[in-house]
Amino acid sequence: MFVLGLQGSPRAKGNTTTLLSAFLDEVRKRGGRVVTLDATKMKVLPCLGCGTCERKGYCPQDDDMQAAYPLLRKADLTVLATPIYFYGATAQMKAFIDRSQALWSRKYALDLEDPGRKWRKGFLLAVGATKGKNLFDGTILTARYFFDAVGAGFEGTLGYRHLDKAGDILKHPTALAEAGEKAGELAAPLLKRKKVLFACRENACRSQMAAAFTRQLAGDRFEVESAGSAPTREINPVMEEVMAEKGVDMAYLKPCAISELPDDWRPDAVVSMGCEVACPTFPGADTEDWDLPDPSKESMDFMRNVRDQVEKRVEDFILK
Ligand SMILES: Cc1cc2nc3c(=O)[nH]c(=O)nc-3n(C[C@H](O)[C@H](O)[C@H](O)COP(=O)(O)O)c2cc1C
């Protein structure tokens, strides 16, 4: 399970970072993988409203968001954490949120479905100084649309009032325990999923398609990785195109070496796409080979045919 924390307070050791840490520490304790992006330390340019993403599906601004998009796509759970500034998120977090428009465009302008969309979860953590009834309303509304743009179901908010000085949250009677409890509650079903590795040589076509279909059809039951014994630099553009014909969005995916998988990630099942792959042995994992032809240097029709075979194999696989 992979959890992405988004930190929005510019204050070192502020209430937001402490609250987010309580949440993420619980995820780690339970065996989840965690990455935190600190929006206040990243170079994130404001959205220019240029419309490139709506036409082409990507943002042309060259900054740290380009590394954030793949993480937003990979996350099983995204936690947005921000102090309240003028009844909204901080400016740094708002810039990050606005730039998620590139992902919004892929879905709503280009009609492409992120394979993880149906199962990904989103959660909001917020803190503010005052006690106002409506203190979190604006930020909750923004978070709702942010999570929709990044393809995550909005699971709710923990918002804490009357916290002003850095460290005030440490005196709060329940906040840190509640953040830990919520993390455990959200992580539990994700951690129970069966771990599957789809492997091929280049991790550019077949294993990427298998992973995407499995994620899309049964991401609630399977935690999926794909990797290759000799990965290429980029995924195959023809594969990306034939998957787009089926509405499946393969953006932001990169080939990965089997040796680059996290050390502590132990698959329950390893599925190789063709017997040319020298898979390392994963003790205790079920193994099977789908014996699919390598489409990497073949025609588009050949790629379509392999795509359909992969889809069918995945449909059978998830029923087992
Ligand atoms: C520019 C600015 C705007 C703020 N606006 C609000 C506000 O609208 N409502 C509120 O309750 N607190 C407001 N605060 C207070 C912070 O939300 C509060 O100090 C919070 O605990 C800071 O969290 P942190 O320690 O994680 O940075 C504001 C603080 C700053 C610096």
Account of the 3D structure:
With 320 residues, the protein is of the alpha/beta class. It folds into two domains: 2-191, Flavodoxin domain (Rossmann fold), CATH 3.40.50; 194-317, Rossmann fold, CATH 3.40.50. 37% of the residues lie in helices and 18% in strands. The chain is built from ten helices and nine strands. The strands form two sheets. A five-stranded parallel beta sheet has the order 2-1-3-4-5, with helices on both faces. Helix 6 links the parallel strand 4 (121-127) and strand 5. Helix 1 (15-29) packs parallel to helix 7. The structure holds flavin mononucleotide (FMN). Flavin mononucleotide (FMN) binds next to helix 1.
List keywords for this structure.
single chain, 320 residues, alpha/beta, Rossmann fold, 2 domains, five-stranded parallel β-sheet, four-stranded parallel β-sheet, 10 helices, 18% strand, globular, binds flavin mononucleotide
